[in-house]
Amino acid sequence: MEGNGHSGSTAREEYEVREHDVLVIGAGGAGLRAAIAVAQKGMSVGVVTKSLLGKAHTVMAEGGIAAALGNVDPDDSWEQHFIDTMNSGKFINNWRKVEIYAKEAPAGVIELEQWGALFNRTEEGKIHQRPFGGHTYRRLAHIGDRTGLEMIRTLQEKLLTTDAEVYMETTVTKLFKDSQGRISGALAYTRESGKFILFKTKAIVMATGGWGRIYKVTSNSWEGTGDGIFLAYDAGAELVDMEMVQFHPTGMVWPPGVRGILVTEGVRGEGGILRNANGERFMERYDPQRMELSTRDVVARANYTEVQEGRGTPHGGVYLDITHLGYDEIMKRLPTMHEQFLKLADVDIAKEPMEVFPTVHYNMGGLKVEPESCATTIPGLFAAGEVAGGLHGANRLGGNSLGDLLVFGRRAGEGAAEYVGQSTHAAGAPDEEVQEEIRRVLEPLTKKPSDRDESPYLLQEELQEAMMQHANLMRDEDSLKEGLRKVLAIKERIPNVRVGGSRLFNPGWHAAQDIRYMANISEIIIRCALERKEKRGAQWRLDCDELVEEYGKINFVVKKNEKGEPVIERREIPPMPEHLAALFKKEKTKV
Amino acid sequence: MSEGDVTSRAHAPVGEEELGGTDRTIKLNIFRGDAGGGEEVEYEIPYVEGMVVLDAVLYIQAHQANDLAVRWNCKAAHCGSCSAEINGMPKLMCKTRIDEYEGKEIHVGPLQAFPLIKDLVTDVSWNYEVSKGITPFTTSEKAPFTLYEEDVERLYEPKSCIECFLCQDVCHVLRTHHKHPEYAGPRFFVRNQWLEMHPLDEANRLHDLKEKDGIGYCNITKCCTEVCPVGIHITDNSIIPLKERVAGEYYDPAKWLMRKIRGRRNGDRAAG
Known about the structure:
heterodimer, A: alpha+beta, four-stranded mixed beta sheet, 22 strands, 36% helix, B: alpha+beta, five-stranded mixed beta sheet, two-stranded antiparallel ribbon, 13 helices, elongated
């Protein structure tokens, strides 16, 4: 794409230079927690966010933070949380990452409380914990159904007490490496003015979240375009399990404008019942033991299948009924849901059921990281939160994402700080490289009009349709191949994207950057989905068997080759050490 | 691809988007311009059942005005990004249904209490500066705390603020009198309130509320409460209680005398 038919000016562009010990890209839960960790080490940290502070997708998390505090069910333990997470992930998770997570999540919750976060309480005055799909015990610390808001606000206000510098509404377009292949900087522009900033830094924490926007029906905001994972991949980082895309079982379906907006799993946690148009409680047929509280992959497929087989509601969903809880309890435990349905869909959930259907929600795959330090395969590049892979395997349990942000956000920040403390090399990037990148970024604005011009919005829509149609929660080889053809054709057209207007807060220009990330990630997801020939968690290949043994022992690791093409490697998962493997033996004898 | 085989089942249900389509079109007048000036531009778009103002604005952006500047994130009234003025009323665009304006014109413009950047986007960075100046949650107790559900219920309301800044926009102290340097605004009285009410917080913010945050400027017109999209009773539950505590601390003659005799520190501690 680069250098393709320059028509704009080749004059040198001015840019600001800022220097930080660590640059954190993304200001959701993981990014904020990482930045706090760096600042607490007394280092200089910059935080770049595409939106205003406090608006990141973490704010949409509703149900709670999974942590084995044992406040409601004293029998809970990190061991059981480990077992549940591995079971749900169908054993392709990075077991060391899961072990660290299960052990450290409770401390993450308590730390939030120390910083002023509010949680619902038990009668004894402890943090209350609610049940959630796939968790053996009641495990989710929560505040009503807006736990994410509480978490992001707490972290944001904590960050404001440090010396961290926040660059709001700023977009990173490239990572720079030095001659040794180490991180040395990043280029960004401010959305408000279109001015460029070169960040000189030896370490970057990637905390950019997911890429749900590659699908048409998603619970993700406009931000979820996968910038971070693509920039890291483009710089040479390894990705893992990219085929694993989580469809949340319950998104809104009606009216059309709200399609895909999340309906919290908290509704099922609080006893919500799923029914089809015939009034059948259909989960009896898919998971008679756990019913509505089965794992997300199972419930999503059940909802999808009911509609596919003609038992859907008038608007193409299934019913989710919480009316039995009564108005007062709903207002206490699910007030946001009540308001959301009443205002946007004219539905009073205290009186009538909701209509729901699966919506793209989360990406289990991501940057391959060291569990302890969150280091990626590029020296100086760290990653935490949704952009990092390994924790969730083939299916994420609800509540394990917020915990992930706290545990690995902190570890990534500390890992980056430690790395910087030990390094003596210089940071920065040669001016020619910076100028070349600036020219590339400006291309959609500066190029001459032609009859091949493409709208970034419409090209994005076309991609979203293709992914929806061919890489949905049920997949097969023929359809995936057709999807790949479409995505590759869209990729070819990206250099034709042109937008009008100036650099001043121009969303069209911003969208023109995003399409490159989205198309490349889509290609990788489909290629990996073609490789994993089985049904496992979120990867449900209709043309293959369930849980094929050989695939249970490998991760698919993707890396860019010299020609810029994605290469997929089958990498064996190292065997679990005895102290972890023994947990499952005990589990078996218990049943 | 033939019907009924494995491949066709692998597809998402399609055609649902047509369900909401109608023959109707609607017109919106949207402010276009920047700090140098601007004017309203009329756009006509297809009406889809149940659509909100943000749907309309995003349709215009995708199909008619690619560079139309607007902020949005969650599209479900959780994040507070898409604040604007609709027919002069501060509102969240994602929560304002088009059918509320049946038979009426729709005018969409930027917030007025903050400097305009472009179109519907204003510079709200001042709010983050104010937030930074507030004494954060401070306690010598070590978590996990013992705290009860009745405490949580009291703190729940001020904690549900989504920082949309609509209350800041409507507040005449900021909107009309531009007291930004000496007044924190309703949003930050709400933040002060939960901090002051948290059973484990040990800081005293009354001096700041009086001197730095200018709570005295508020004359309780309740405009902020009216526009709050999450229904916080800002005036009754946040501002008035804080005003009472400030008055008790600084205008109570007995306390005034105590302060004179024993010095400010003691007075502060007594109020905490």
